Amino acid sequence: MTSVDTTVGREAAGTAPGGRPAERWTLERGGTRVRLLTYGGIVQSVEVPDRSGARGDVVLGLGSAAGATEYAACRGPYLGALVGRYANRIAGASFTLDGTAYALVPNEGPNCLHGGAEGFDRRVWRAERVPGGVRLTRVSPAGEQGFPGRLAVSATYTLDAAGALAIAYEAAADAPTPVSLTNHTYWNLDGAASGPVVGTHELRLGASRMTPVDAAGIPTGGTVPVAGTRHDFRTARVLDAGHDHNFALDGAADGERFAAELYAPASGRVLTIRTTEPGVQLFTADSFAPPLPFGPGAGVALETQAFPDAPNRPEFPPAVLRPGERYTSRTTYAFSVR
Ligand code: GAL
């Protein structure tokens, strides 16, 4: 049987700060429909069937077609966003690389979170159609938010014949720089408006170790076993509140490894995440409150990534890209029912 390529549509999607027009692209294949914005690479909606075949939106997004305007006004929790140049925290918004100290833009107390105040999530990307979907590209200039070197970046969003979404990132730099890119979608497999995922969804993680952090979310050093702690998701269990931690994924470092499986018993929807990254941040959105249109625990973020603060942690897997090298990262989000 021949499989039909992803159907791709594009339309205007409001304006980013500074008046730059943004677009919304719609990808559809294998029962999945994804809408994403060239503003912030934001995944605005992902519609997949439940066990009765009814399609519903399983991510927390801001609704209308004028998406960019709404997301830009919401200085919020990175809903659906493409996060970079360095996802998660860099302690003291500083690091030393090859003997040179660099100061980043601090945007969470003294620390740098998700690439600084004006990260990749607040930029308009250039979009082009590619087989299976759409590729977003932009150049992050040398010194952007304090990061060294000019970085040419792409993020390619594709759907396969079974309706699985893949996001593949590539980057090249003209000077050594930390790089860690992720997507910050919050999932709610019973539907964005269905109420909390906390207490209803079951989660399994492919991680027997995690990186302990201090009260500010900064790693205190190394990894520790999850066995016997509240971080143990090696066997599926109902998601509880209060998670905002990076897990060290088991399995070989080459190719994609299992990161997470999220299951919603009410709708029967299952999300399976695999990634080339060494870590995944589990965040249960406990802080969600008005004016955000979602309450605490309304969605769960599973951010595949390098470890937090790796630029200051020699014991962590390295997250530095050097000239002549190519940063590649890929995460797949597969949907099924049970
Ligand atoms: C997560 C981070 C949380 C919170 C969230 C955005 O990745 O770990 O602490 O900042 O992003 O609201």
UniProtKB/TrEMBL annotation:
Pfam families with a match to the protein in the record: Aldose_epim (PF01263)
Catalytic activity: alpha-D-glucose = beta-D-glucose
CDD domains: galactose_mutarotase_like (cd09019)
Region (Disordered): 1-24
Entry keyword Isomerase: yes
PROSITE patterns, sorted: ALDOSE_1_EPIMERASE
Record's keyword terms, sorted: Carbohydrate metabolism, Isomerase
Pathway recorded for this protein: Carbohydrate metabolism; hexose metabolism
Top-level taxonomic group: Bacteria
Protein EC: 5.1.3.3
Annotated family: Belongs to the aldose epimerase family.
Name of the molecule in the record: Aldose 1-epimerase
Organism: Streptomyces tremellae
Lineage: Bacteria, Bacillati, Actinomycetota, Actinomycetes, Kitasatosporales
